[in-house]
Design goal:
With about 375 residues, the chain is of the alpha+beta class. The protein is built from eleven helices and 13 strands. The chain has helices at about 5-15, 105-120, 140-155, 165-170, 180-190, 195-200, 255-270, 305-310, 320-325, 330-345, 350-360; strands at about 25-30, 45, 50, 65, 70, 75-80, 105, 130-135, 155-160, 175, 230-235, 275, 295-300. Strands 1, 2, 3, 4, 5, 6, 7, 8 and 11 form a nine-stranded antiparallel β-sheet that branches. A hairpin with a 2-residue loop joins strand 5 and strand 6. Helix 9 packs across helix 10. It starts with 6 loop residues before the first helix and ends with a helix.
Amino acid sequence: MTLRDYSQVVERIKGKPLNVVDKLGTLVRVDEKFSDLLKEGEEYVPQGIFYSTSPDDLISRRTIFRDNPLKIDGKKYFLELKGYGVNGKDIWFQEHDAKDVYYGMYLENALLEFERLQFARNLGLEVPFPVAVVQIPHEEYLRQGLESFSRGLTGITIEWDFKDEDFLANFGTPFHRFRNSDAILNYLKKSSDPEKKMKEILSLFKSPFKSRPSPESKIKALTSGKEIGYLIRAARCPYRIGGHYEVKNLSLPANKSAVKRTGKTFMRLLENGILHHCPSLGNFTLDGELSDLQDTFDLNTEYEKLEPHMKFVGTKSLREFTEYLIGPIHTSSKLSQDFIDGMYHKGISLEEAVDRTMKIIESYN
């Protein structure tokens, strides 16, 4: 297989440089392949200019990349930071539906993906290189998230019976609609305990709205007790087949070939006990790498997580879930057969592929 050089593609469609905010962290894991460049235990702040993995810049991402590739084993790879914040800026205090930090990562999830990438690379599979995991200290996370928290309160009406003179001096009346996020941000920054002040503000909500998350959810990641971090990895291409740039060209021969290769990787992982539960076009790079291995279960040790996940995605049986997993919902009607061909090396139907894949999954139970 000849690896394509994506430098010219990146140069052509990379969009505007991002205004990335420095976040001081500590390297807690470094793959031995990169131990000459990075050292576990050292402080780390990313250097260089970064870009969004959404080339048309329509979608905010938690993954950003550096446009100057590095050479690994003589091939060009692009350094990616996953979980670094909204296009390289804020990390929110809320959780994503998938129980991770909005635009960030729990450290345990960054470590999990790092280890799963190592496992896959040791099998010789087409996945990004795991480079390192960085832990963001609680104090740094708190400092970085105050702005997004403050913006999230604008336009919300609260009322309170609250005697904090400093608060009243900033916000005045006992029935108030937050209109200025800067006022909230400045109030929190002046406090010696901004986390406590956030909890006090959230306790003032007039009532929990059925159509909105509960006030407590706005700081759930902050108060979870979990450490925060991000993953550094290196991919041959930072852009995904499911990105806006390529979505009109799904039937291109290059995309069909790439999807076949991701199907092969998906199957090899499954045969080794690792189930990627989101094999979607958004997780397939243009060069056929299967990415985001955080979205995996080790069926040898995590089989019990499968049933709750099946319910979470709205499937009622293993058969329905398996069809959802490998069928057109994830890979589109244009590329679904290519994914199945990659899994089984021949043109079998979706129904037969579901039967065979189910048997493999059930064998771990």
